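Weekly structure sync - notes
Attendees: PM, LS, DV (DV joined late)
Agenda: review two folding runs queued last week.

Item 1: First target. Sequence and structure tokens pasted below for the record.
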Amino acid sequence: MKINFLLPHLKISGGIRISLNYADSLAARGYDVCVYVPENSPRRYFKNLIKLRPDWFPDFRGKIKRISRVNEGSLRDADVLIADSWKMADLAKALSLTKGKKFQFIQHDERLYHGDPKSVEQVYHLPFKKIVVSTWLKNILKDDFGADASLLINSIDKKTFYFKKVEKNKNKTRILMLYHSYEWKGSREGVEIIQELKARYPQVEMVLYGARRKELDFEAEYHFNPPQEKLAEIFSSAEIFLCPSWDEGFGLPSVEAMNCKCALVTYNNGGSRDFAFDMETAMVAERRNKEELKNKLEKLIVDESLRRKIAGNGFEFVQKMPSLEEQTGLLEKILKS
């Protein structure tokens, strides 16, 4: 079976990493996989010539082709075409079925932050087979668009995100958070919450990681764009992971932190409902209720036994979540159906 993937870019992000993981895993199973990425740069010819892979995924086993535009001449004939994001699905709608039976891979409610809501809705009404990564998204597609989407819960790379024994200062409580430039990721609110609690509890240490280059104007340990092999150490060094994101299609960083035995504190942000259960696997606050999120975090700072319980339960839950191999098998069935 020939499978075409259509991706908006190859920059490292949760959504792109998930799509490339599936493309790579399908290629490893013997499928003829080609990932197409629109790119206007004249350097695309050279990149295609040397078969350049993303530096964060150098061992990718499928083919990657950078194209100037999405049209009949730029994509090969195939059995399946998987469009990642509403913009790619919008471009794919004009392609003939010789380029592949059309699937739309939806990893967020893209009406919220990723495009004009009316334009996104028009694409969601297209007769593509829908695949979603969370129960929240499956319900949205059913309730708002009358579409029966296939559920393909995200899996994490447990070879990258795993609990690693690191030396810790028992007198400190390290709180880890993804530091992002998007407002809806809630980084500003998260920093404010940690700062307010640090003023009350001096043992608190703020630890941030991310690809935001802006220099911090507040005190924190910051890991800028850390290499993949460093992530387990960073995650495992923290006792708590704070997710102040308003809305998440799934929430990979939270699950990655849970597998490193961090106690999760999060908003009820949609995607988190598949793994964050209040007072069991996580501390969950009402969406955008900043005061409640701060109270949930404070409980874990002052109550070590509760913190250990949440971290342990969260770790055990993630250990039982489906693996990439299992989910690739499910994806195979969806594509063949």
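Item 2: Second target, run right after the first with the same settings.
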Amino acid sequence: MIPAAIHDLGPGMDRLQRIALVVGIAGLALCGLELVRDPAQFQRSYLIGFLLWCGVMVGSMAMLMLHHLAGGGWGYLIRRPLEAAMRTWPLVALMVVPILFGTRALFPWADPAVVASSEALRHKQVMLNVPAFIARAPIYFLIWGVMITLLNRWSGRQDSSSDPSLVRKLQNLSGPGLVIFALSGTFAATDWVMSLEPEWFSSVFPGIVLIGWALSGIVFAILVLPLLINLPPLRDLAAPKYLNDLGNMMFTFLLVWAYLQVGQLIIIWSGNITEEIPFYLRRMTPGWEQITVLLAVFHFFVPFVLLLQRNLKRRIEWLWKMAALLFVLRLVNMVWDVGPAFDPTGFRFHWADWVAPVGIGGVWVAFFVRQLKRRPLLPLEDPRLPLVYERIELHRVGDVN
């Protein structure tokens, strides 16, 4: 039997929304001081924060489409958090505006003198020019916004209708939608991250960014889950089997991310080409070298070993801790991707690189909570949901026997 839905998420969520908004405003105010003192540094720090939270939004959309295609009870545990996260796209679209205004401070190819002195940049000028860069950003958000609107509309109808055609619509959009996500995300990753070092190129790097975004999406949804898991109707859905499946999904994206990172490193290092190898040489200078080791150990090896433990993945308190570790390391990874482009001779700590993501994140989380409170925690008329509860009962009987 499927329990009734509720809309009230309790005073805890209201408190989280208020705290997040206050923290966000305070963080952005501090960054505003840096904008006055050093506009170039503000732009760099703001870019790090934008990439982190844009990744959560886009990655949530990708994970939701994967759930619609693959099915499984794990997706219902985090479906409404994923939907709320992707509905923040209008806010994230507004957040890209400071980056568009700061193009010349961030990207070397925006400086005509730099382009004139580099043959490689002159060849890339068809894509890497200011008007084209500014024009492409709204296109990305328009593409993502259309898919998010349709996914949202059809999912919302399942709160009151068990029409099986809604399931087919969600599935039919999600297949091509993942391809569109990969294509649009590749261009966005190239524009916003890879072109920070425009003479460098890698066909693997956009894929690393996309997998990182998908990982950010599922990690953030798992972080929210302990706040919701004791509320009906999720309380009866949070079976160890589905928590284990969530851990396996997180493990899979972590493994693919590491595989692409190592593959790119091996290819570039063995090729030893002048245009490619500086990317890693910059990240092996004092300071950045320690950050590289930190990422290798805590963004891969430690969670890899922990996520192999089936008993840990079946307990929400341990799953949450692993997700928290990975989310912090996603921020460190953003700093590692962006920072050496501006500090190629060594690591330079700047407080705004860490405060800007907190400020942007505070406002984003407040908007996310607002979206999460708009709908019940499960689409209770989804015709696939009764089968999910039946499987829970079968596993429960099997465990007892």
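Discussion on item 2: Residues 395 and 401 are 10 Å apart (CA to CA).
Action: LS to circulate a short write-up before next sync.
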